[in-house]
Amino acid sequence: MNSQVTYVCYEESGQITAIVKGPRNAIEEPLGSFIDYQGDEDIGLNWYVFDGEILQKPEQPSPDYVFDYFSGEWQLDFEIAKQRKWDAIKGDRTAQEFGAFDWGGYTFQCDEVSQRRIQGAVQLSALDDTLTLDWTLADNSVQTFTAADYIQIGQALAVHVSQCHERGRILRLQINDATTLEELEAIFW
Predict the structure, then answer these.
(1) Is 65 left (phi over 0), alpha (psi -120 to 50) or beta?
(2) CB atoms < 10 A from the CB of 164, how many?
(3) Residue 22 belongs to what H/E stretch?
(4) pLDDT at 2
(5) Residues 168, 170, 176, 181: is their CA dihedral positive or negative?
(6) Do residues 32 and 9 touch, judged by C-beta distance below 8 A?
(7) DSSP-derived secondary structure for 27-74
(8) Are 14 and 56 in contact (CB under 8 A)?
(9) Which residues on adjacent β-strands are paired with residue 146?
(10) In sequence order, what are the residues at sequence separation of 6 or more whose Cβ sits closer than 8 angstroms to the Cβ of residue 22?
């Protein structure tokens, strides 16, 4: 019967890069830094090597933290935290922009298809000022609008989109100016 071997390969920092398991007579010793592991723990890439000892990393506080192999602790990477906050704000901005908007007491859908349809109605209205068309609103009710209405609806849509992006730009500046995690966490759409 062949004895089993587990080689834990790691970088100088202590980050484990590979775990090689198998029969001792079938596996060559790896190049570089490694430990011939004899323990019973199920070692994974969520472990690290420090002073020749294999240790398990503590739980990561959030994805904004990177592991410092020299201290054995998770450290906040503020640039990652800022990027994650901006990604969340962009998601909120997109949801708002392509959600719905109001004009004249009516709520209109404004997903990409609806925006194109509204723009088409505005273009038709510019060509024919006697135009009247039925429109299905966000609540699925139907309302008839005139060419003049569609011009105003198109303007309201443009203002809605512009306001979403203006808010996004303001929040982006706040994110860039944040110097603490508390300031960053206080930024919301």
Answers:
(1) beta
(2) 21
(3) strand 16-23
(4) 54
(5) negative
(6) yes
(7) -PPPSSSEEEE--SS---TTEEEETTEEEEPPPPS-TTEEEETTTTEE
(8) no
(9) 132
(10) 4, 5
Rg of the chain over all Cα atoms, to the nearest angstrom: 29
| CA atoms of 178 and 82, how far apart (whole Å) | 8
**CATH 1.10.287 domain range(s) in the chain:** 78-185
Q: pLDDT by residue (tens digit) across 75-102?
A: 999 999 999 999 999 999 999 999 999 9
Alpha carbon distance 157, 122 (integer Å): 11
What Å distances lie between residue 90 and 77, 96, 100, 153, 181, CA to CA?
A: 20, 10, 17, 25, 19
| pTM of model > 0.85 | no
Decide yes or no: CATH 2.40.10 for domain 78-185: no
